[in-house]
Amino acid sequence: GKHTVNLDSKIADVRVKPFTLEMGTKFELHVTISGKKINISEVPDLSIPEDWMRDKLELNFYKSEQGGGGEIESVNYDKQSRTAVITFLRPG
Questions:
Q1: SS3 string of 10-65?
Q2: Average pLDDT estimate for 67-91
Q3: What is the CA radius of gyration of the chain?
Q4: Where are the domains of the chain?
């Protein structure tokens, strides 16, 4: 519906309209696991900033049973080669 918003000494009438959010993107990673590092290849080339991809990779492997998981020391992501190396704080 319609709403009135007071902005300092001015009043603005606004109308709320629903909108559809885009669905998330699913993708597959190829992983090689060692004691403290995970090497990831074939990271999909998504149209998102590189720091977002690093965050997504970190969240996926932080305390993840599927990925081995644990506290992460660093995530090195190379968009051009579509690879990443995740280093954990402790081997496991």
A1: EEEEEECCCCCCCCCCCCCCEEEECCCEEEEECCCCCCCCHHHHHHHHHHHHCCCC
A2: 85
A3: 21
A4: 33-88
Q: Which tokens hold the place of 74?
A: 């660093």
Burial readout 32-64 (b: 16 or more C-beta within 10 A, e: otherwise):
eeeeeebebeebeeeeeeeeebbebbeeebeee
Length of the chain: 92
Q: Is the dihedral of CA 21, 61, 67, 42 positive or negative?
A: positive
- Would you say the pTM of this structure is higher than 0.70? no
List, for residues 26-66, the tens digit of each pLDDT value. Answer: 777 776 666 788 888 889 888 888 999 999 888 888 866 55
